[in-house]
Amino acid sequence: MRRRVAMYRALTEPQLVGGCERSSFFALLGVCVLVGFLGGLAAGRWYMVVVSVAVFWFGKIALGQAAKRDPHLREVVIRSNRYGARLQAVPSVKEGR
Questions:
Q1: Is residue 63 part of a domain?
Q2: Which residue, of 2, 26, 30, 71, is most buried by count of CB atoms within 10 Å of its CB?
Q3: pLDDT tens per residue, range 21-46
């Protein structure tokens, strides 16, 4: 008799917000809100509000396309930057003489 284990979708699928990766989406949203409010409304420049909305719109489209290709793209980029240009290969066992 085979045993069945309940597997929830939330454990296996990436966490996306609006089709974009969570942290990237909220970073984009935060930057656009700051630029729109501080650069636009607080300074009296209404065109900056329009610019921040346009940047958010196109940024969300770009993040959505990136999430379709690889939902963990941000983590991959951060990890590759941490390793640098090349990974130093070290032998797992020291050579004895």
A1: yes
A2: 71
A3: 999 999 999 999 999 998 888 888 88
Count of domains forming the chain: 1
In a domain, 38, yes or no: yes
Spatial contact of 73 and 80, defined as CB atoms under 8 Å apart: no
Does the residue 86 lie in any domain? no
Domain for residue 61, yes or no?
Answer: yes
DSSP the chain: -PPP----HHHHS--EETTEEHHHHHHHHHHHHHIIIIIIITTT-HHHHHHHHHHHHHHHHHHHHHHHH-TTHHHHHHHHHHH-SSPPP--SSPPP-
